[in-house]
## 1
Amino acid sequence: MTERLAVVALALLTLLSLALAPWAALNRETGARSAVMLLPNRIIDFTTRTTPVEAPGQGVVLLLSVLGVATIVGAGALRDRPRQVLWLGAGATLLVTTAWGLAGFASAVDAQRVLSVRDDVRAAVERPRPAFDVDVLQAIVDDPADLSIEETVARAREGGLIIRRLPYTGAGMGLAAFLTIVTGLFAIVAGARMVRAVNRPLDRALATMAIPAVSIVLALAAAAVVILVMQPTPRASAFEFEGPLIALAGRLDTLWLAYYTMFAESLGTAKGFADALSFATPLIFTGLAVGFGFRAGLFNIGAPGQMVLGAIATMFVGLYMPGPTWLVLPVAVAAAALGGGLWGALPGWLKARFGANEVINTILLNFVAASLLLFMLSSSPTFAAPAVRVIQLIGVVVGVMIVALLVPWLRRQLGRGPRVVLALVGVGVLVGAVFVSQPRPGDAPYVLQLPFKVPGSEPKSYELQETARLPRLPAVFGIDLRQTPGTNIKPVDVALPAALLFGVAALVVANRLRRPAAARARLGVAAGSALVAYGALAALGWRALPVAIPPSNLNPSFVIAIAAAVFVHYFLFRTRFGYELRASGLSPKAAEYGGANLRRNTVMAMAISGALAGLTATHYVLGGALEDYALRQSIPTGDGFDGIAVALLGGNSPVGIVLAAFLFGVLKNGGSLLNITFSNLTRDVVSMILALVVLFIAAKGFLPERLTNPLRRAKALGDLPPEVGDGKPERPPDDAPGGPPGQTPTGAKEERG
């Protein structure tokens, strides 16, 4: 019933958009001023200088679209089989009609664009300049052939005329066309239920995606209100609104263009896609870190500090470790994980040993890590002599404690009263600090010269040696941007990664068979499938496919992030220790009764979580994502907090975290373009959307309990027998023993002596 209401509601919204919202855009100018078209061929020119274009067949598009949407709405009242058949047909009609209409619109715009360029060429012929080749330009005017816009511009350039800005820039679909496509897709998916084999996988997919998808939609809807309040409709000063419908169309187009700006660059261009992956890479690491902690019943909010310690550790290896690349680079990656892991293990040990809350400890350690980074990258830090003596005292005490813990007899004695021992040590350090901090004759300030800090006031380290660097995307393909700047076209062996993905898909399918074969047989099937796919793709010429390689900070740390996600999935769901961690997170008492070591699990879970967060250094330091291959104070530790939202949106599963991180990467990359396109919008809109996503996920998307309760959902899917409870305590009936106090099993009042 919920699915039917959702499809019908979406269809009604689409029906309204066909009447009120722009179906396509003719022109997008600087400042987001646009000329848009509503069906059928109703032009609203907010630029006041765009020549109207009449696309053929738009009346037919409107008629078929309205019929298709009305069919979806009407079929919602029918029984399953007729409704599904009608939804399939109506959905296919909407997709085909919209695609045909957009193709005709694009052809009409291209033809008008060529005519506009020819008018410019004709004007150049009538008023020639010395740099113009009039014969070449006149040939363009006289040529009866239907030249494409690219050919026309190229021939004009040969004649000395440079077309600096093409007319009808940014022409494309509008809000109404987009909603029509979405409605058609939803109708086809819902209508596919007429095939019984589709029902169970579709139910599982919808149950898994319900909360994240609804949360994203609600966040975008709430952000839409803010966008409409902050940004007025961009228009030329000479444009005047002639009625409320035109004003409404302008507001809807402004909202559509804002969201289109956020997503189109990342999903429609090679550079935008690479930049979105670059933004997503650290979010994968931090999302995995937070999600891993959640699985173990721990809330690791210390990813920012673990990022810093991982970056510091990998910086030391990258600067000072000698050796070839094959040795230094893996050690630098391991150092990033080790630095973050040790910083994460500290609050884990405090929780396991003393019961200290990991949330408070990790928050406080974030400030400690930030202060440590500030100290290490500050210019010539100066200490007073008493402060140096206090630091020396603390170092001596820590050294003595480490030695004492290494002696078994002392360790046993100290372990009998750890809180008392720590309290006595703390009091002793404070008393000692009072004495050693007293001024003495001859005290002089101590200026610390850090060897890894670059001279001057810039807060950064020296650049890493060449053997510790992960190449950026162009360098991976042997492109030197100093010689060939911009996007380069290179032949790339696309068949190999595609075949590997095909092999992985074959392995997943083999694992999900009702009677899975032996491990060797499954691996053999996967390898054979990959080889067959590689041979077929190689025969199609995919071994040297021309690919656009844009300048981007994307680097192989993205591959490390995907490998980390695979490791987390295998560790949590395919190993005994991973099962023990998940059991400890779900029910610590039951896990301990079953033999789990809760203290060890707590420390190990926080250490692994911290190691995943520390691996962000492979992107920012080893990968040179911060301008150069150096540790900078500007390392964006906010990614650690964004990882919480990524983990929540991804449902704490590695696959979901990777997808959620990519979505956040798309939004972050698109947010940087908002301020360029709109005068009143900034990337803070994206931050607001991310915060709203977390808010709505915490509220479970305001969905009914039958969709959010795992036990009730599992019973609905048939994974649990009906007699299993839903996890909620049930109130005993009044006539049951132990019913409401003061009543006997028959309901009479109990006599008290």
Note: The first strand starts at residue 24 and ends at 28.
## 2
Amino acid sequence: LSNQKKKKKGESDMASPSKRREMDMMKLMMSDYKVDTVNDDLHMFYVTFHGPTDSLYEGGVWKIKVELPEAYPYKSPSVGFVNKIYHPNVDESSGAVCLDVINQTWSPMFDLINVFESFLPQLLLYPNPSDPFNGEAASLLMRDRPAYELKVKGSSRSLFLPTCFSILFNLSLTHWLVSLTFQEYCKRYAKPEDIGAPEEISSDDDDDDSMSERGSDSDDNDEIAGKADP
């Protein structure tokens, strides 16, 4: 009887992908990933993804569009990059990821956390030029790897990073973006301690105050010197 109950429970779980979808979404939202849903629809949402450490994409930030099919988790999710990325297995114009990257190894045992902690990092760390979505990137990788690495790093510097751009526009330093690299600008202006920091008094104001004080002292001395002894 106990085995029959377990079997029925297992069949019930297998027949309710909606419950699994809700559970996996909850796990993803409770993790360190920023998740933006669209009208509370669990079939499509966006996740903020950072480039893997010690990779060509380190320091880059991407907005990933995730679509869950009705048969999830028995069918793999569809993922795509919203902002551009230069990679052999990602279509540069649409951001679509080669389906084989996930489909070949996907099973119901995996969840959404695995997509962002395993599948996408592995994709960026180990591109496969033999199965390209971006023919130019694949060709460049096989023909001239140093040039490929330079192009990847260059594309990663112009990525979508709301905090950095917000600070950029608030400081009216848009023209600096051309001369400063992505890492340099954020290192200068997007540190945690910079948020809400009190406005510093400029050195010009200090000089003006000092000059005013010296001028006041000088006037007082002149006034004293001008008085004759009775």
Note: The longest helix spans residues 203-226.
## 3
Amino acid sequence: MSMWRKFKNSLSPVREPIAAHAPTQRALRRTPTRRMQAGVDRVAGRLSFLPFSKAVVESEKGEPPVLVRELPPLERPPTNSSAMYTNEQRAPPPKLGLFDKVTRAAGSNYVFVGMLAIVAAWVVLGFVQGTTDTWQILMQNASSIQVYVTDILLLRQQSNGMKSLLTTLAEMQSRNQSVDRLIRRIPDCEWMETHKSPAQRLLSGSGRPVEEEQEETLLIEIHQMSRLKYVWNRTCRAVAVGLGSLWAFAFYWVGIFFWIGIGPIFQFSDTWQLYVNTATAVALTFTSVFLQNIQQQQEDNLEKSLEYATKIDAEVEEHLRELAEDFKPNPIFEIPPPKATRSERFIDYFADIMGSGIGVTLSLVVVAIWLSVGHLLEFDDNWWLIIGTFTGLVGFIDGFILRNVYAREEVRVNQEFRNIAAEDSKIFDLLNLPQPDPPVEPPSTMSTRVSRAAGDFSGLAATSIGSVVLVFILLGIASIMKWSETGQLLCNTPTMIIEGFLLLILIQAHNVANEERGREFSGILKRRLLLNHYVLSLQQI
């Protein structure tokens, strides 16, 4: 890579591909029993009396087709390699760095409850000492700093979660390639009578429909939960649905227009601006911490669900390797990075900086400068507003950046889920197996369509660029007003109002993604359960 390209990529980063391979399952080599050998001879003999065209089996890519009677000898593991007899273990995940540990801890229930306790203490302080301007500015500054930090952690959380999910999906597609190859090496698969009647087409190994076994599997984790955790998760889910609904959007803007309507009563004073800033500060604190909490819950649940599906996948591979005595390692599967426009690369660059230790370092430098000039401004209200203005404006941009990155990553992940479904369909067609019915997507209501349209608009790259332009305009206005209290409030008020609404949209986007993940995982699990049952039936021939 040339020096210019390295310099260009450092300014505008290029997303790296996700490459992974599924751990190879090594079946123990064993001497074929008479029954197994008789089954192979019976199948081969039956095929030998078929017409010549039907006695041809596809071989490895790049090689001509061969007759069943002339199949090459099966691959056997080297006698000097004991590793070929054991299952390859999945590489342990890399150790979390300090920043990643902080990110994960910030999404815990303890942090969420702790933030609610701090807000409650602030409310009590207002009742005791009065709702003064200083009391309101204290909340606004604290909220701006907290939301700014939370946005940084959300960017990091989003990046880590997507990398982990895409790696798992790459491993599943790696194993799918091996399963397809192994199936073609087993002559029983093409001619086995897979289903005697339509009523049995979804039966699993236990004799019950795959849907019932799949639903029972999903309930195992719920039964292992404590009652308190179960109630907590259900409550968070209900609150998330409420905050991401069209009714919440409407209620939010009704409150904003009511505040505008009472402006003449307060003569549009600084106190009038402080009222809405304080209200939105409380809303921002709650929604940002709540979003991080439910996003961490979703990642944990999805990780456990995919882990179960991966175990079934590994079992299918192991049984097929035992039948085919094929020990070729699973191939490396690569998910290419998505194509990005210049504006999207700029957004990625901003997200990479703010979602890393660089963003944290820059924040600490700004805080240090703010503290150092406090005595020059005599620690007055203007000084208190400076840090809130900085964190508020940067946090405002972070919100749009986060929504854009989230939207593009969702498109990428959904495409990989569709690729897996297409590969599964090819395997089922190869085996002449009917596929389980796909999960039914509920019809969308007017409320859902409107809220999704708002979310899609906020996720556009042009919207993120527009947020940067708006910040520069506000900075120019504040400079003209010599950074007075009114000038800083003009910077804070519109950005806090828009950011408050944006966080509701982010919760709505989380809800949509959560529903899609549930349907996608349900389909993956059904297909793996049915395929596993079929492979087990092959071993009984």
Note: The chain has a mean pLDDT of 76.
